[in-house]
Amino acid sequence: GVLAMMYEMPRHLFLDEALQHRAYENTALSIGYQQTISQPYIVALMTQLAGVSDPSVKRVLDIGTGCGYQAAILSRMADWVFTVERIEALSFSARERLQTLGYKNISYLCGDGYAGWLKKAPFDAIIVAAAPPDVPEALKQQLSPGGRLVIPVGEGEQQGLRLIERTANGFVEQTVAAVKFVPLVAAGQT
């Protein structure tokens, strides 16, 4: 289901015209402001790990809106996507782009990804597209029972993609793959 959804998604519409010819390469590409659109493989892997294709996953939190590509993928599978971006210009352009493309089940917040979106919690899945040095406790606490958090953790070349599941007894964590993401930066920092 995830791969079929991604196959139908026009990735080139999420890039500046100068990079559209590279839209379907399996690589991360610049979207400005020292941020990137993740490579398609990683978007698919994170979406799959989050379990978003499961019909029980209704509410998803997307940290690091960027150009809106991940939010678009998620919105095709979940009932509602809540997406947070700290860079105002990216948040604004993603909202404009997604609304123009007809996505109506996405809420937008320009804010701090470390804090998540407490007013809209809990979430059945949370996907984070930037790497903090440690897992933010606020994000774990915003998971619903049985919810999954997919997040790259670490600094520089030492990052691991983690899957964290909330169980009745706490949290179960596993590292799934080595990855390289831009750092997760708190709102107001550079």
List keywords for this structure.
alpha/beta; 23% helix; 5 helices; 7-stranded mixed β-sheet; 33% strand; 9 strands; two-stranded antiparallel sheet; 190 residues; single chain
Description:
- The protein has 190 residues and is α/β, with parallel strands linked by helices.
- It has five helices and nine strands, in the order H-E-E-H-E-H-E-H-E-E-H-E-E-E.
- A seven-stranded mixed β-sheet has the order 5-4-3-6-7-8-9.
Stretches where pLDDT is under 50 for at least 5 consecutive residues are none
Rg is: 15 Å
Indicate the overall shape. Answer: globular
Query: Helix amount, in percent?
Result: 10-25%
Figure out the total of helices.
5
Major sheet summary line: 7 strands, mixed
Straight-line distance between termini: 37 Å
The fraction of residues in strands falls at 25-35%
The helix-and-strand class reads alpha/beta
**What's the mean pLDDT score?**
92
User: How many strands appear in the DSSP assignment?
Assistant: 9
| SSE pattern, N- to C-terminal | HEEHEHEHEEHEEE
